[in-house]
User: Fold these one by one.
Assistant:
Number 1:
Amino acid sequence: MKIFSATTFILILIGALMLAGVLWRESAHKLGPIENLNSMQGADAPLFLPKDGEPRHRLHQFNAWQLATIPHAHRFDAPMGTENGGLTFNAQKFWKMNDEQGGHHTGDDLDGLGGMDSDLGDPVFAAADGLVVYSGEPSPGWGKVLILAHRSADRRWLQSMYAGLLRIDVPMGKLVGRGQRIGLVGTANGDDPAHLHFELRESRGVEIGSAYSMFAMNRLDPEETLAELRGAPADRLSSSLLPIALDKKGMWNTLEIEGAEKLGELQE
């Protein structure tokens, strides 16, 4: 009985020491300042998200106002090759297992027919009418990354991600039209041969994540989803009207008023 009591005492002591160690480490951990927690409705950042001046691309949920600015996208097209996706091939398909990277591929790697760096600097086009919700370089391995947010015809909140870019041609917060050039094919800072890593996701927030994962989470098969949301016959080619509608100098926005001295003043 004495042996059992001593053993029990030792186990309790070890457990208490482990618990004390955990509590000490937690108390020593310093949390950075947070963006806005005036109320649960008014919080514009997740709890305890550090405010370091950088875009909150790792974990950020859109608020109601941001969701309202995301345009409806009634048609989706391939983002590379031409405005309608010609002259490209899928070098690494969605969810293909890559043992070297230790996970499944989370998007499609679109490449020019010549392979290697033959498509370096080729244009990348917006897959659908959308809003730029991320534009930057989250880490050296990703290179330059652009994310557009869309609301599909079936009322899903979708995002298209364009990674490894050589150059980004559109800033944060800009509305872009399907088929509009948004960047150039790059090499992710020389880590890979030139190609476009293209992802489609269903999400109401922005998180960059990894190009390889064991869990699909909110990722969609880009090829299948584009076909599903095509919104037009495969052989029908047309451009989006959104860039034309947003062009203040475009003929559709020109107002001819008798006696106006400067048409430009009316367009401001």
Number 2:
Amino acid sequence: MNIPNQITISRILLIPIFMAFMLIDFGWGDMTLLGATLPVAHFIGALIFIFASATDWVDGYYARKYNLVTTFGKFLDPLADKLLVSAALIILVELGFAPAWVVIVIISREFAVTGLRLVLAGEGEVVAAGNLGKIKTVTQLLAIISLLLYNMIFALIGIPFGEIMLYIALLFTVWSGWDYFYANRKGLMASK
């Protein structure tokens, strides 16, 4: 197994650790940093999420730079991303930081686009991530990180940045999902 795939697997292995810090009360108390007061365990959990999210860029860069792109990596990398983001979004619902309906729409879009990619792959077509999909990913990560950190920095000026970014992420999630299906409608119809 090559290094990019090992990095991807490490991202998956970080998910239960991230979840533990976000969902278990370790009794470590709270901390105040940059206008936000949050449990110490949540701060550590947020740092783990940030680190795990960064590994997505690292494994992709490394795989492309050293020509280590594999079929296994093409399958595992997006799966790891979806598992990490889905876990974080569900945790945000559990903590009361995100409406369940928003998270259901976002996760449903991820399943739908993954299904589309699998159908088209069966027809020999590869669906690459488009610009809207990349914007969707960035807005989702900004929303999740901000909410996991209790709107740190923005709490100083009273702006609910995480909540705003969550709805912007929702917009790009729906838009990019529609774009994937519209752009690939002929391939999807041909697979019937």
Number 3:
Amino acid sequence: MNQFIGYQAGTSWIHQLSGASKFLFFLLTSIAAMLTYDTRLLLAIALLSLLALALARISWASIRWVIYFASFFAAMNLLMVYLFAPEYGVDIYGTRHLLWAGIGPYSVTQEQLFYLANLFLKYVATLPLALVFLLTTHPSQFAASLNQIGVPYRIAYAVSLTLRYIPDVQEDFVIIRKSQQARGLDLSAQQPLLARIRGNALILFPLILTSLERIETISCAMELRRFGKEKRRTWYWSQPWTWQDYLLLGLALLTLILAFYLMWAQGSRFYNPWQA
């Protein structure tokens, strides 16, 4: 079974980095991508994200459904933006270059397409980074790294448990789904889409019960071991930072500073190629 959101062991350069440096890079770079609408910076971040995904050597089979799912919602988001605000790009950039007259208010302009392209670049800039971080960072090593940079170990351990729990939820979902199919519930591709959606929705209730039971078991086990009694703790997975981690952090800070500088220099979050 493919655990499409969970740690995958590897020997790539990205796997060897500290979990904290990868998290800070993902966080700061994502903030920069969310803040700016400068196409040049977004394109650079998107290319960097795709390069990181390639360097991590993550198999396509393990992430394809995440990509399909995110692409579907990205397409729906772009469509909704156009349907509810077909002239929003014109309002932002202050010019109007008509490409197709359309029907009623639904014309196609260069400005609207440019704005939608920037929205699409935001997805490309952030989604690969999130996948690289989740699939190349061991939860225990990440928790130790968070504690190293000052995060309380109780919070760091909670994050570690969350990352560990995501693949387990998927495994439980697949087990329950196979059990339902063995009892006659057809969830194959031969069924209509709505029927499959209703069938998968029926799995959520037993999945929630299984999750609550597991949470209770983990909580009791931690209480029996007096977790959280001391103010500090040691970590088996503790990893010192190397020059590569500091380089990654510097690149993230540079990206964020560049985003703020471009907004200050242009007087706006938007890069306007039609501005004289």
